[in-house]
Write a structure and sequence with these properties.
This protein is α+β, with helices and mostly antiparallel strands. The chain is built from 8 helices and 17 strands. It has 2 domains: 196 residues, Fructose-1,6-Bisphosphatase, Chain A, domain 1, CATH 3.30.540; 128 residues, D-Maltodextrin-Binding Protein, domain 2. It has an 8-stranded mixed β-sheet with strand order 6-5-7-8-9-10-11-12, with helices on both faces. The structure holds 2,5-anhydro-1,6-di-O-phosphono-D-glucitol and manganese (II) ion (MN) (2 copies).
């Protein structure tokens, strides 16, 4: 630091370290710093994160011109394995992840909510022993009205040869995730990730074409004012979730925020505290969110930030899926707020068992 004429202190312009650290902590450099290693495994994870960043940049670039470029808005006319109508950008984003990882040599298999079966890259399999699980475009109903969307990802070690393509090794709990995170396409593009050493966020600097460190070791407050849930489903919820909704309606200190895109809603909660809920409904008893591509990666991040993620009765990271595209109810966010929701579920159970 140097003193200015007015007596204020400011960084020494000759201290290059200050400016390099502030402006140039890129994603790949950060991963290596976190792993405290330049060994082959650390290089792999760093390269993987770099590739995810590249996919994010390509998607962000296309989103920034949505409406100007043909094939960016609207539906394709197809229905995906989830029974949902596919949008042009769902398809594009899914393909971007595949092409980004095809030449990487790092990933043998990609599993996405848009594909019935994992996509294999046989030429990578002798080297790449990782699987990338992802939701290429989250919140796609926001696309046609120019609101925030995201991408969600997780990396798992591939176990076994998986010769028949059944991907049985993916049917394991979320604590097997090596890394997880999301990209938020908002006013700026953010990438938030964890490799089990805290949660860190990066902002895309479009002039550099790089994700630059924004905040290290993000921690979620123990309690926050926000509850984030689609209350239009109230009539379809179990009585315990209705009890919770009635509670927040009748007590001071709560505020509702719901954007229709999980990534945006969870990012708000990660920064400011509170709880996001997507309970089971009469029509979808397991809720809407997919365990492997949405709930488990978000749960990994939230736990790393000191928060919690639950189905209402079990930690999300302990849930063992029976199938690839399994859905799960989700209650995620600040520890105290998740516990409050769970307490309404336990109360109802107790009352039901008492008759
Ligand atoms: P996707 O666009 O990947 O299908 O995910 C949409 C999800 C999630 O982003 C959001 O929280 C939720 O669906 C919103 O669902 P509702 O419209 O039922 O509230
Ligand atoms: Mn989604
Ligand atoms: Mn999606």
């Amino acid at each position: 630091m140097v003193q200015t004429q007015t007596g204020r202190s400011q960084p020494d312009p000759l201290d290059r370290g200050y400016y390099l650290d502030r402006d140039c902590t890129t994603l790949s450099r950060h991963v290596l710093q976190q792993l405290k290693s330049f060994g082959p495994d650390a290089q792999d994870i760093s390269a993987l994160m770099n590739r995810i960043g590249l996919a994010g940049k390509l998607i962000a670039r296309r989103l920034s011109r949505a409406g100007l470029v043909e094939g960016t808005l609207g539906f394709t006319g197809d229905v995906n394995v989830q029974g949902e109508e596919v949008k042009q950008m769902d398809l594009y984003s899914n393909a971007v992840f595949i092409s980004t990882f095809k030449q990487s040599g790092l990933v043998c298999r990609l599993a996405s909510e848009e594909m019935e079966k994992p996509y294999y890259i046989p030429e990578n399999c002798p080297i790449g022993r990782y699987t990338l699980l992802y939701d290429p475009l989250d919140g796609s109903s926001n696309l046609d009205v120019n609101l925030n969307v995201g991408s969600i990802f997780a990396i798992r070690q591939q176990e076994g040869d998986d010769e028949d393509g059944a991907a049985l090794d993916l049917l394991q709990h979320g604590r097997k995730q090596l890394a997880a995170g999301y990209i938020l396409y908002g006013p700026s593009t953010l990438l938030v990730y964890s490799i089990g050493t805290g949660v860190h966020s990066f902002t895309l600097d479009p002039s550099l074409g790089e994700f630059i460190l924004a905040q290290e070791n993000i921690t979620v407050p123990e309690h926050g004012p926000v509850y984030s849930v689609n209350e239009g489903n109230f009539w379809q919820w179990d009585e315990s979730f209705r009890d919770y909704a009635r509670y927040v309606h009748r007590h001071e200190g709560y505020t509702a925020r719901y954007s229709g895109a999980l990534v945006g809603d969870i990012h708000r909660i990660l920064c400011q505290g509170g709880v996001f809920l997507y309970p089971g409904t009469a029509k979808k008893p397991e809720g809407k969110l997919r365990l492997l591509y949405e709930s488990a990666p978000m749960a990994f991040l939230m736990e790393q930030a000191g928060g919690r993620a639950s189905t209402g009765t079990q930690d999300i990271l302990d849930v063992i899926p029976e199938k690839l595209h399994q859905r799960t109810p989700l209650v995620i966010g600040s520890k105290e707020d998740v516990a409050l929701v769970e307490s309404f579920i336990q109360d109802r159970k107790r009352r039901d068992s008492e008759g």
